């Protein structure tokens, strides 16, 4: 019988295998963990679970048991090499790139360095051309890679961009005029539950959502923009009771090294800075800012392979494949879990990184174990907490390799918005198309032709039955038909592979109130011994998952009480980094203005009386950073004379800071969450 424990003597260690380990019913006790101070279970073997287990294993006094339902580790990071006509072709079936930038990429870069993957990172400095499919052709979006004249020409030559900008200005002018003088009060279950589509439509008009924003959401979440929660996508929705002037916001937040971020980003940055010296911190910051994106030249799954290998060789880690955790229950001094093979174990702490619907099933036993009245109350509370967190979409990934070179326009690819006709231009219900990686990517791939990726499905397939989903052959035919219609590619690919990724991207609706209830429930029944991480509870990007895992592990090791949820429904933090003369870094909350050109640039786009709240401002900031940052100085110089009287710095900055300080009122709203979920008394000092 195979041993389930991986802590074999050094001479007998085996390389990690993703093959299914033999199942056997075992009840193990505290004696199995003798010699350790803490015993932690991690549920889920995707990138979040692997990173959590790895960070926990760095403490030799902590024993980690990792449970994975399937026969392999790695989750959706899946790479495959194929031999085609004597050439080695790399296909990716999951995420293909990591985003660079500070502070978002800090946790990822730190992990790459620790795993020895720095030399395998291929950093792409430019953003490359990005397109949106509009009607029956591609529309190139402005970007810093085009330069000032190139961007001006892109706007001038595109009736789509000119028309979209005009519609945004007209719509927003009407919205601002109609709402002038009114205050938008916070409703715990109202405004906080607004979908991203509804909110952006109310601010920028339906055309902006249908023609542009929906395409961005297709590319990131494969989601319906009118169903996904704004809080899921953007850092901090509707946090102020009034509205904040966009110009004021940009004047304050466009300062050098300043940004508005969720508390999880700020807290991770502070923990990260605290354990490194100034020189190392500066090295990480410069590395994070050295490019736009990066990829691993031997495939994205190299990251999960490295993590699995480290866990396999760690004496304090037990990896259990093919084990489905069916129940999670609080017990005296810990948490008890049950596996489908009958195995029962108790741990000091459990971290779940699975989807929220899986967690809900695992908690059902808790409700039935309570008294009748408490059981009904707990069941209703869990139902309310999970009803807007549950749900995930299927995405079909099709990779095609053509012998011919240069079949696609230069750039990263294009996304397909809601406005594209399903019946005429997109019967395949595609989400987007990915072009070949740039030459500077330096991938370990000897292909000389054209490699294309097609993503289909997502929310478009929500109502489809299992029998309606295409098989591999049908999906390949659909992808070829799409490329023929959109790009005029009539050639047959040398090789094509398709893979259906089931329930791969969680679809969170109205997450703010729901996560407040869930946080309260878990605190009450598990006393902070059960924590959560993963895309069901926060943003779905790779950087976000790795950061959530690193922060979760740090909180467990430091014995800091947290379910790891509160970072996602509390107000955003104002953060940044600054290097003092003594060489030390600190995180400032206010500093002197370091330039106003980026802020003034937005006056070209929006009228001076435009007012946004935090959701729209965050979206605008993302668009600005992506497309306009490098040209802001030049464009602003052209228009600065017309807006000179807008430079009332004191009035403007005071208004922003007064509005941002209203975020403190969110302490009262968190109390409402706790009371709604029976979370106990408040311990906060006023």
Automatic annotation (TrEMBL):
Binds 1 FAD per subunit. It catalyses: protoporphyrinogen IX + 3 O2 = protoporphyrin IX + 3 H2O2. It is a single-pass membrane protein. The keyword Hydrolase does not apply. SUPFAM superfamilies: FAD-linked reductases, C-terminal domain, FAD/NAD(P)-binding domain, Subunit X (non-heme 7 kDa protein) of cytochrome bc1 complex (Ubiquinol-cytochrome c reductase). It is found in: Mitochondrion inner membrane. Its EC number is 1.3.3.4. One of its GO terms (cellular component) is mitochondrial inner membrane. The keyword Mitochondrion applies. Keywords: Electron transport, FAD, Flavoprotein, Heme biosynthesis, Membrane, Mitochondrion, Mitochondrion inner membrane, Oxidoreductase, Porphyrin biosynthesis, Respiratory chain, Transmembrane, Transmembrane helix, Transport. Residues 47-536 form the Amine oxidase domain. Pfam families: Amino_oxidase, UCR_UQCRX_QCR9. Pathway: Porphyrin-containing compound metabolism; protoporphyrin-IX biosynthesis; protoporphyrin-IX from protoporphyrinogen-IX: step 1/1. GO terms for molecular function: oxygen-dependent protoporphyrinogen oxidase activity. Belongs to the protoporphyrinogen/coproporphyrinogen oxidase family. Protoporphyrinogen oxidase subfamily. Catalyzes the 6-electron oxidation of protoporphyrinogen-IX to form protoporphyrin-IX. This is Protoporphyrinogen oxidase.
